[in-house]
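Input for the complex:
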Amino acid sequence: MKIELASKYGFCFGVKRAIKIAEDNTNSRTYGPLIHNSKEINRLKENFNVGLSENLSDFTTGDKVVIRTHGIPKNELKTLNEKSIDVIDATCPYVTKPQLIVEDMNNQGYDVVIFGDESHPEIKGVKSYAQNNVYVVNCVEDLELIPLREKIALVAQTTRKIEDYQAISNYLIRSHKEVRVFNTICNATFENQDAVRDLSQKADVMIIIGGKNSSNTKQLHSIAVSKCENSYHIEGPDDLEKTWFKDKKHCGISAGASTPDWIIQQVINSIEKI
Amino acid sequence: MKIELASKYGFCFGVKRAIKIAEDNTNSRTYGPLIHNSKEINRLKENFNVGLSENLSDFTTGDKVVIRTHGIPKNELKTLNEKSIDVIDATCPYVTKPQLIVEDMNNQGYDVVIFGDESHPEIKGVKSYAQNNVYVVNCVEDLELIPLREKIALVAQTTRKIEDYQAISNYLIRSHKEVRVFNTICNATFENQDAVRDLSQKADVMIIIGGKNSSNTKQLHSIAVSKCENSYHIEGPDDLEKTWFKDKKHCGISAGASTPDWIIQQVINSIEKI
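Predicted:
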């Protein structure tokens, strides 16, 4: 069986940057997981003593906190700064951008629509930069329930599919005087998605590697499965099942933006043994 | 044969308003045709002595000029005002709006994309309100040739189809940081188009009445023909052909925004005789 990696996959600029920041700040803690990959977070703990706390109240004066790639809500950042905590910001610059757009557009009187997952930390953070008239939607149907005014500013979660974003935009354009569409989907997302689309048209089994709660990995899997029905989302080699590869000739592999190369290599080694 | 009018058709707000303005200003001349309907223009000449001049230089101090519904280029309006001509503006307010948007966006440093027909008077006028970095496109393919910068403002000719406008917007959203989409398609266009779409799915012959150079009538005809292949664009009863109605059971009728009711009635009378 041929094993082929997508032409673009894995670590994006923001994740590489955040890991470098964490490695440079030993004896610190992240507030929430730095990236959506528990194996990499364990590595940072073991090799650099970068810990993890899920509660804001765990941080007190004198602590060193690393802000996760997804960012955190504005009021929580304020609380940390007020406590004289050493705040090291590893928020991906591509996430900081929609935060600032949402704040600016809201101040200018636009209704703000965020296309994303309301429960995802990135979106909780981005949404917090608007004071009012801000709505998170996951699909066109969600929009039908919202009494939007004439002028709309639209941003997207960095990891969303452009086609879905266009559907949201198309719906709004039809019935609103001005729709200010900010393309906040990051380039790495675009490139990884395009590459997985190409590869899954050729492969007869697709393995997508990444954290189970990683939004961009889920999107990669949804693209793969639309082109190749034997597509599987795994976190690491332990999740592989022999039956997936029976009578298969071409195995395609891709990985989310928070999946380190060493995990990808472990998966490839395991598949080769199968 | 059943004859059925579309639920919405014919004169829009801007055309009604312009005709009222012309009727109130006897012994004047329009600069270019007031609306795209030569029969109605003849009526204004005969009943109200509202003439028509195609050349700017025909107007001199003391004249009374009525500005057409489609508007005119900014510098030509300036020339008329400088000559101390009595300028009566019958530009449709829905056309004035994209003119002002284009001027404002261009001043704010946006590249301006106008979706429309470069040779149409409305678009000549709208385009003239930008000083530079303004582009008129008729389809997505036109966009591929233009070196646009990151921030785009997008407006549409008032009479365009929303689906085509969305295609332009979708193309731009994919590759630009900000696309500020102004929905400048007028409501009458929307309503007449929706109504002709419905009717042409039921009828077996469709008659669309309006000036041959009327953009919105052409759009109505293109929608009709996509649902009912026996769809014909006529200017008045003289254009009707008996063979169109042979063995037909249901004749649908619609008319462009510049088509007066008296022409529509003449057409219905003629079809009834056939």
